[in-house]
Specification:
Elements lengths: L11 H7 L3 E7 L5 E7 L6 E5 L5 H14 L8 E5 L2 E5 L4 E2 L3 H4 L2 H18 L23 E4 L8 E3 L5 E4 L6 E4 H15 L7 H10 L5 H11 L1
Antiparallel strand pairs: 1-2, 2-3, 3-5, 4-5, 6-8, 7-10, 8-9
Helix pairs in contact: 4-5, 4-6, 5-6, 5-7
The protein binds adenosine-5'-triphosphate and magnesium ion (MG).
Magnesium ion (MG) binds next to loops.
Family: Belongs to the aminoglycoside phosphotransferase family.
InterPro entries: Aminoglycoside_PTrfase (IPR002575), Kan/Strep_kinase (IPR024165), Kinase-like_dom_sf (IPR011009)
Protein name: Phosphotransferase
Length: 229
């Protein structure tokens, strides 16, 4: 889960979608999946194509109905097309919270991530959610503090930010589902340690939770971090 460092082969499906427009690999995930920006060169990307290896294609198939449903309530990418192992979306304005610009201003990023999760949890209706719990959340999880529609993969790179440092939207919704809000908060705060230089124990995590509007529930956070592992 990082920015590409070497050359990346452009898959046929991406070349077909680009139809002569500029293509640039922007993200490589830990399963060997690559996300390409399309329409680059003169302006910001206008579309993205995420391509996963065959053995992980089901993750992308799960993301399509989740993006379509969540988009009725909050800022997530519009699906333009999909097929086995690929997902084509319209660009959401904004840059990932782990863009170098925000790695150098981690407190701003942590605040935007917390604000974004709060917005997501408030906006998506649990009662109407057609999806079950995220794949990694145990069926016998503790009594929820507050049941919400969770992002399901609330790592820092999946929050997008405007250039002035506010929350812009969410990407990567393949595991969206109903769970305790601490399922997202546990992973979001943990991922700060991976993506930003530390400023002492729990520094940025406290900023994230403050922006969300909650005080740390260390027991629930520990539980969901174990479940995530
Ligand atoms: N429609 C979009 N609009 C804006 N940015 C996007 C869009 N789709 C993807 N991105 C960018 O590409 C990155 C990778 O996309 P995404 O998170 O969906 O891929 P992934 O491989 O599932 O990620 P992960 O490593 O978290 O599993 C995002 O972090 C975001 O910066
Ligand atoms: Mg992602």
């Amino acid at each position: 889960m990082t920015f590409p460092t070497g050359p990346v082969k452009v898959p046929d499906v991406v070349a077909r979608i680009a139809a002569g427009r500029g293509v640039e690999p922007v993200w490589v995930n830990e399963l060997g999946g690559v996300t390409f920006a399309v329409g680059t060169g003169f302006a910001a990307a206008v579309e993205y194509v995420k391509v996963h290896p065959d053995e992980h294609a089901d993750l992308l198939a799960a993301e399509v109905p989740r993006l379509r449903w969540a988009r009725r309530f909050t800022a997530v990418p519009e699906v333009l097309g999909s097929g086995p192992g690929w997902l084509h979306t319209a660009a959401l304005a904004g840059r990932t919270a782990v863009d170098p610009r925000w790695v150098d201003a981690a407190d701003v990023a942590a605040r935007a991530i917390g604000t974004g999760l709060r917005h997501l949890h408030d906006a998506l209706p649990v009662a109407d959610c057609p999806f079950g719990r995220p794949s990694w959340v145990p069926a016998d999880a503790p009594e929820p503090d507050r049941l919400v529609v969770c992002h399901g993969d609330a790592c820092a790179p999946n929050t997008l930010m405007t250039d002035d440092g506010t929350f812009a939207g969410h990407v990567d919704l393949g595991d969206l589902g109903v769970a305790d809000r601490w399922a997202d908060l546990a992973i979001a705060t943990m991922s700060l340690d991976w993506n930003y230089p530390t400023d002492g124990p729990d520094g940025f995590a406290a900023v994230l939770l403050d922006a969300y509007g909650v005080t740390a529930d260390t027991e629930r956070m520990a539980y969901y971090r174990r479940a995530w592992d």
